[in-house]
Amino acid sequence: MTKAGAQAGAPPSSSALAPLGKWFLPLVVLTALGFAYHLGYVAFMTPTAQPAAGGLAQKIFYFHVPAAYALYLSGAVCFFASAAYLASPSEVKNAWSRAAAEVAVIFGAMVLASGPLWAKKAWGVYWTWDPRLTTLMLNVLLYAAVMVLRAFAGSGDAERRFAAAFTVLGTLLLPVVHYAVKLWGGVHPTVVTQGGGGLQHPDMKTALTLGFVAMTFLAAVLIWSRARLALALGRLATVEEIAAARGIGAAS
Description:
Elements lengths: L2 H6 L5 H4 L6 H21 L16 H27 L3 H33 L7 H22 L4 H15 L2 H5 L1 H5 L17 H44 L7
Helix pairs in contact: 3-10, 4-5, 4-7, 4-10, 5-6, 5-10, 6-7
């Protein structure tokens, strides 16, 4: 192995494996406490909506919308990490890009699961091919395709660059999801933004704000955890390759 090859194959440094590691456990604790308080606040403090708005099922709103926000947040992290990898490849940037894409799928699944539960009560059907719902589903499937690509297409630089480029292009769909109602209409309710029904009670606004905070913490924990795992697995694979190249562990 040449000196250049050894440098290229060197595993990520330990500092890259545990960035600001001392803050991880406090962040997990804050996330758990935040969700516990949010659940209690939604259950006992927020009023029940009118039957036309879904009644008790309307409380899904306080998890559905923050989950969509966390999807956008994960997509933004994925976009910037992927773009940074294309500009200057590194294990850390690849790990954050991969982690954010996987977390985006998680939050997308949360949105797609919670939405129909509310829709059944408010619209009478679990699913309708509303522009926002359709574009959101396509976006989640895109991130899922990135996960499959990374899992089965290998871990070479060419595969990573293709996955990063695919992610950058796919993330551009997220603004389309957000503005789909304005672009093409549809039956998806507009509650918070201008022209929507609004949150009539102060406790509703507080519950939604708590949901945003809790989902932000959860997104940070999940992305951070998955990035650290990806870096650790990459380091292990590199060490195994170096050991194999030097004949360490080979049968005598």
